[in-house]
């Protein structure tokens, strides 16, 4: 059966209410939503944190985000990185394009995707393990909201996922109509740090 094979595609991605999903949406999410465990090493994580932490400490926590998806967070853009981190981020940049990619640092967490029109029916959970990479493209990026579950709600398939302070390094493309394709090869990274 097609639905079962799609649901078991990745043990870090969990679909809720699968009998209610149209096959085309389920297939699109399965093909365009990726989570890769241990994408970076412990040493690479330490190098990234060494470069990020001094800047993050100076920022105040913000209470509301433009998309209402995060609460109590600090955010900044960083376009230039040390030589070691540039090498690490070059591996992440290849997962950009018409996508959003992120690397989770310091803690595991659960990202919940909800369809913008059917928020209580089409729900997908991504288990973002520490040092993992997630990639969203297609309708997963544009037709679903994205949220990191708070400590008290942090569960994956009914199992608690202990969550502590986390930092997410996010790579997004500039809109293609504003930049020539050649200029999109190296994208700015956004660093997010939240405590909920």
TrEMBL record:
InterPro entries, sorted: AlkB-like_sf, ALKBH7-like
Cellular component per GO, a single term: mitochondrial matrix
Source organism (scientific name): Panagrolaimus superbus
SUPFAM superfamilies linked to this entry: Clavaminate synthase-like (SSF51197)
Species classification: Eukaryota, Metazoa, Ecdysozoa, Nematoda, Chromadorea
PANTHER family, alphabetized: ALPHA-KETOGLUTARATE-DEPENDENT DIOXYGENASE ALKB HOMOLOG 7, MITOCHONDRIAL, SPERMATOGENESIS ASSOCIATED 11-RELATED
Needed co-factor(s): Fe(2+)
Gene Ontology process terms (BP): DNA damage response; fatty acid metabolic process
Gene3D superfamilies: Alpha-ketoglutarate-dependent dioxygenase AlkB-like
Protein known as: Uncharacterized protein
